[in-house]
Write a structure and sequence with these properties.
This protein is mainly alpha-helical. The chain is built from 2 helices and no strands.
Length: about 55
């Protein structure tokens, strides 16, 4: 059995221009909004969700 492991090499840092960072931020906001829209609508309406309320409270 070989007990030696190979070292992990980290990927080099990636730098974004201001325009690229803005584009990435907007894309992230859009994805986050789509993924949380149903939850936010239920919460605003005061409706409960049996599974999500159980898991996240």
């Amino acid at each position: 059995m070989n007990t030696q492991s190979t070292p992990t090499v980290a990927a080099p840092a990636r730098f974004l221009s201001a325009a690229q960072a803005q584009e990435a931020r907007l894309a992230h906001e859009s994805r986050a909004d789509a993924l949380t829209a149903a939850h936010r609508a239920r919460r605003q309406a005061g409706q409960k969700h049996p599974v999500e309320d159980f898991l996240f409270t």
